[in-house]
Amino acid sequence: HVLPQLFIWRALSESGKTFVDVQITHRGDVAQVYLPKAREAYDGHIPPIDFHAADTDKLSTIFPSIPPAVFSLFLFPHGDANIAMLVALFVMSGVIFLALYGLGTLLTGDRVLGILFGFLGTLTPLLSGLPKAFTSVDNFLNLALKHFIPFVSTKLDKLFLDRIDDPLLTYPFYFLALAALVWYWHWPQKKTAIAAGVLSGLLAYVYFHYWAYVMLVIGVLCIYLLVVQKEQRERLGTFVWLLGSLAVTFIPYAISYFRF
Q1: CB 141 within 8 Å of CB 116
Q2: Are 167 and 127 in contact (CB under 8 A)?
Q3: Which of 59, 78, 145, 218 is deepest in the core (most CB within 10 A)?
Q4: Distance separating alpha carbons of residues 197 and 242, to the nearest angstrom
């Protein structure tokens, strides 16, 4: 994921030109919104203020605060956005692969399939193509095979994860939350319930749409337990821990949301 930009940087430097990884012409939202918020976090303003709000002195914000805080860590050694972007891309793409590997292994029970799951998620646009990828066999093969990096002959300047906040800084938390839910469902214990609840609640501070999806999944599981598995009192008891830890994690975001 990093190599295309490194080659471009070297070519521009050799020709006496300046390399700028994020430009407003092709990454307008990143240049205008996400990088400035990461800079705010780098300067110690967490959560970062919302530049588009009428009153920028407000401490409350509905904008997710975890991705800018994570990216600010890559700015600390030097403050250079170009280097930070490339280092974050190198590190976080590896984290995404590991998260997908863990999720795939939990879902299938097979480590080889878990590795395949990780490669499909990081070396193809399959995840960003959901749910369209499963509307037909042709769409799936197009995303999963024709766009698989080793088989792509087109010269690409950026690969599929090269964007902040989503997917580079959001996918790790999203997949970890899903993995924690699967882990809890297979091993319904107090500790797995709390882990699933906390990680699911943290998604509100990461990306609203992923949080909403996971809340829907938890709601469906809750209904399933109350209707189909109501006799399994032990599982119902651990699910209460999941809901409780989820609520506690979400409360600060809810307070900030209603104060905004």
Answers
A1: no
A2: yes
A3: 218
A4: 5
Encode pLDDT of 74-106 as tens digits: 888 777 888 888 888 889 999 999 999 999 999
Nearest-angstrom CA–CA distance, 31 and 172: 22
Cα–Cα dist 201/102, whole Å: 20
Give the helix/strand (H/E) hosting 248. helix 233-259
Q: Report in angstroms the alpha-carbon separations of 82 from 44, 85, 254.
A: 20, 5, 34
Hey, CA dihedral for 114, 120, 126, 127, is it positive or negative?
Answer: positive
How far is residue 95 from each of residues 71, 98, 102, 148, measured CA to CA in Å? 14, 5, 11, 19
Sign of the CA dihedral running 144, 87, 51, 48: positive
* Kind and range of the H or E run holding 178: helix 171-186
Q: What phi-psi label fits residue 80: left (phi over 0), alpha (psi between -120 and 50 degrees) or beta? A: beta
**Among 19-23, 225-229, 247-251, where is mean pLDDT lowest?**
19-23
**Residue 243 burial (10 A CB sphere; 0-12, 13-18, 19+):** middle
DSSP state letters, 108-160: HS-HHHHHHHHHHHHHSSTTTTTTGGGS-HHHHHIIIIIT-GGG--S--SS-T
pTM higher than 0.85 for the full model?
A: no
Q: Are 71 and 39 in contact (CB under 8 A)?
A: no
